Each structure stands twice: as C-alpha cells, then as structure tokens.
Amino acid sequence: MPEGDTIYRAAVRLGQAMAGRVLTRSDFRVPRLATADIAGERIEEVRSVGKHLLMRGERHTIHSHAGMDGLWHVLEPGRRAPVAAHTIRVVLATAEHDIVGSALPLLELLPRERDWDAVAHLGPDLLSPEWGEADAAEAARRLRATGVPVGVALLDQTAVAGLGNVFRGELCFLRGVHPATPVGEVDVEPIVALARRLMIANRDRTERTFTGDSRRGRRTWVYGRGGQPCLRCGTRIRDAMLGMEDGMLRQVQWCPRCQPAPPDRVELP
After folding, report:
1. Domains in the chain: how many in total?
2. Average pLDDT, stretch 83-102?
3. Is 170 an active-site residue?
4. Whether residue 44 lies in the annotated active site
5. Where are the beta strands (DSSP E) in 76-226?
6. Domain match, 33 and 73 both
C-alpha cells in the first residue's frame, strides 16, 4: 500500500499538471458518479493528507485513496494509460494533460466547502505543512490511547496519518523497540519525531532509504529482509504476522538482538 511519502509525491506531480488549470473533461467510471461532470471547473490545488488525496476545485473536491494498488497517471493528451482499461475509475483532462486514476478503491466527489470532513477522522498528518508541536503532542496522545502493541498502533491512521508497513518496521528498529511491545510501555514522542523526519527525508526520493544506502537490498534495516542478517549486528531478521484491530494479520520484521522482546512476553511465532 502506498504510504504518506508516496501520496505526497503523487500530489506534487498532479498539482504541477492540474493546479490553476481548467478541466476540459471529466469522466467518472464508478456507478454513483456516472452522471457527474465537472468539466469547466478550475482545480485550485492538489493536496495529500496521510494516504488520502484531495484535488480541490472551485466548487468540488475529488477525494481518493489508493488502497493497495491505486495509481494516478499524468499523460500527454490522447496517450493511453499503462493499465488495463477495466481498472480505470476516472479520466480527467486539461489543455496540457490527461489524468487517469486506476484501481482506486475510494473515489468520491465532494462539495468543496465540506471536503475536509472526509479526512477529519485522521490523526495528525506527518507531512502537513502546518505541522507543529501541538500536532506532535496530539499524535503521541492518540498513539498511547490505542492501547495496542506499538507495531499495531503505528498503522492506526486515526492516531497518526501516513505510516504503513515499511515505515512501521523501520521506526521500531531504529528506536530499538520490539513491534509487539504494548504502546503504553514505549516512549512514543521520539517515535513521532523520527517518523516525521523520515517522511520528510523520503518524500522527494523515488526510492526510499532508511539506512542512508541507496543500493538495492540495503535501503531498509528490517522491512522485506526476513531471514537475512541484520545490517547492524548480523542476527537473522525475524518475520511473522502481527494481529491488527481490524482482525487482519500483517507481516512484520524485526531483529531479535536489536529489538529484544519485552520481559515476560512471548516472542511472535
């Protein structure tokens, strides 16, 4: 699933193509928007909020979430998007570009004056340009209030917006925290501060790196490295499934030496 830095880059790319320009075409290919047409409307800005994307026009906002596979494509006029036609959910156009959204599990058209309601449930956005001390404190408070393992809490978008599996695993490693540690036993303020720094450091990169090394296979400390030696201590990276609040299991990796399990607690299988 795209994480906050990926959606931020998409917003920048889409904003460069759309902001200040009038839509010459809008073709929504989802049933509830089949009759909607906002051609003639000027797009004022494109903004990411966590993993959500808002294309804000004069009267309407196009709100989307990429889910696991969603993509936005910026194309030369008339050029075909590099996706199967049946996955296309919306086609927009300006005089200079065609913009195609594919495989988007969430796509809705909102009144501009109420568009912020769609993301009001989210925790503080790590890449918000208005981020300040109050946001950091609120994110820490919300994380503690989840009462779940820290590896679950960090994926709760209502606590802090933008983090996914990659950032979750890397944050826990860099802070030396086992992902199954109850969040109440973790100093969350430094995790929030580090999460924002890492998001900012990676938001303009096409390939994320958490290690400072951009070579393939050495960009992450633990994510995607189950069974491989830890880049710091050489211990074999563990790989398991961690239960989530929604009842689903998600994969998580950690180093048993750099991130020892809390006392009196059983290691993940």
Report:
1. 2
2. 97
3. no
4. no
5. 88-93, 98-102, 106-111
6. yes
